[in-house]
Amino acid sequence: MHTELWSLIIEKTIFGVILLAAIMTGAAYVTLAERKVASWFQDRIGPNRAGPLGLLQPLADGIKFFLKEDMIPKNVHKAFYLLAPGIAAIPPLLIAASIPWGNQIELLGKAIKLQMIDLNVGILFIFAFASIGVYGVMLGGWASNNKYSLMGGLRSSSQMISYELAQGTAVVGVLLLAGTLSLDEIVKQQDSLTKWYVWRQPIGFFIFFVASLAELARVPFDLPEAENELVGGYHTEYSSMKFGLFQVSEYIHLIVTSALISTLYFGGWQIPFVDIASNSSFIYGVLGVISLLLKTVFFIFVFMWLRWTLPRFRYDQLMSLGWKFLLEAAFVWIVITAILVLAFPWYKTWF
Amino acid sequence: MIKIAFIILSLISIFSALMVISRKNPVASVLWLVFHFFGIAGLYVLLGAHFLAAVQIIVYAGAIMVLFLFVVMMLNLNLVNNEKRGKIIGKSIGAVVSGLVLVLFTYSIRTTKWNELFFNQVTDQEWGTAVKLGSLLFSNWLVPFQIVGILLFAAVIGVVALMKRKITRKVENGIVITQEEDVA
Amino acid sequence: MNSTIDILDQVNANLPTIILLSFALLMLLIDLFLPKRNHLFRSLLAIGSLCIVYLVVKLLLQEKTVYTYFFSLDSFSYFFHILFITVLVFTFLLSGPYFERTKIKFPETSLLLFFSTAGAMIMISANDLIVMFLGLELMSICLYVLAGMLRKRVQSNEGALKYFLLGAFSSGFLLYGITLFYGITGSTNYSEVNQWISQTSNKLSLTFWIGAGLILIGFFFKFASVPFHFWSPDAYEGAPTPITAFFSATPKAAAFGTFIKILIVAFPLVVSDFELILKIIAIATMGIGNFVALQQKSVKRMLAYSSISHAGYLMVALVVKSNLGYSSILLYLIVYSVTNLGAFTIAYLVNRKNEGSYSYEDYNGLATKYPVLAMFMALFMISLAGIPPTGGFFVKYYIFYSALKADQLLLAILMALFSAISVYYYLKVIVHMYMKPLPDSYETIKSDTHVTMGLIFSSLIIIIIGVAPSFWLTLTNRSVSNILINP
Question: Is the domain of B175 the same as that of B86?
Answer without folding.
Answer: no
